[in-house]
Automatic annotation (TrEMBL):
Transmembrane intervals: none
Protein name: Lipoate--protein ligase family protein
Keywords from the UniProt entry: Ligase
Residues annotated as domain BPL/LPL catalytic: 25-210
InterPro entries: aa-tRNA-synth_II/BPL/LPL, BPL_LPL_catalytic, LipoylTrfase_LipoateP_Ligase
Organism the protein comes from: Alistipes hominis
PROSITE patterns cross-referenced by the UniProt entry: BPL_LPL_CATALYTIC
Molecular functions (GO terms): ligase activity
Biological pathway: Protein modification; protein lipoylation via exogenous pathway; protein N(6)-(lipoyl)lysine from lipoate: step 2/2
CDD domains (UniProt xref): LplA
């Protein structure tokens, strides 16, 4: 396993980075982490206006980006950690792979009694703390998710108030009661500190090198994808 950390807080860049790693990386598995600036990330098969209060987002400078995978709409900010497993397809379908297990193990090692729900979401203390989604190509698979650590839950609520009457046949998000990991642990640590503890555990879990920045030689390629497809 190769552990990578994105250099960017741009949601367009990080969506493009996931796509690049899915389609262009050398053989082998990658676990990517990144933190986006305030933004709303919409599922591949959703109608933006039905899921998002675009007026509120425009007024508050919150970017709206459509991602590669399906699933529901999510809010990102500096209190939210994003993780993405990019793996060779193999013979086991992505929905049957236990990608959430190492994340749950990392959370439990840090005092959060997390479990995996029926929709592959992560739960703790009776609340959802992580939503997940997936995408499969001919040779590779992507499984990614969020971790609500210190997210602004009021802003999350305001951004995700779309006009439900516009949904039509598009995929609808499934609302769930959510909470922050920091509210469960009661600690004052920053999201960056918490992320460091998670990645230290995962480096030992996979017996791999510590997390490293995304290689500089691919950054310009990813920027081009971001501008052409996600900007």
């Amino acid at each position: 396993m190769l552990l990578l950390r994105s250099i960017s807080d741009s949601p367009a860049f990080n969506c493009a980075l996931e796509e690049y790693l899915l389609t262009e990386r050398p053989a082998g598995d990658v676990l990517l982490f990144y933190i986006n600036r305030p933004s709303v990330i919409v599922g591949r098969n959703q109608r933006i206006e039905a899921e998002v209060d675009t007026g509120y987002c425009c007024e508050h400078g919150i970017e709206v980006v459509r991602r590669l995978s399906g699933g529901g709409t999510v809010f990102h900010d500096y209190g939210n950690i994003n993780y993405a497993f990019i793996a060779d397809k193999g013979s086991v379908p992505v929905l049957d792979r236990d990608f959430g297990v190492p994340i749950v193990a990392a959370l439990r090692a840090n005092g959060i009694e997390a479990t995996i729900g029926a929709r592959k979401e992560l739960l703790a203390a009776g609340y959802k703390i992580s939503g997940t989604a997936s995408h499969v190509t001919r040779t590779s698979q992507l499984f990614h998710g969020t971790l609500l650590h210190r997210t602004d839950l009021e802003r999350l609520d305001y951004t995700l108030r779309g006009d439900r009457s516009l949904r039509g046949k598009s995929v609808a998000s499934v609302p769930s009661p959510v909470t922050n990991i920091a509210s469960i642990t009661g600690t004052e640590e920053t999201t960056e500190t918490f992320l460091s503890r998670l990645t230290d555990f995962l480096s030992a879990y996979y017996d791999c090198d510590p997390i490293r920045p995304v290689p500089s030689q691919i950054v310009e390629k990813v920027r081009r994808i971001a501008q052409e497809k996600y900007g």
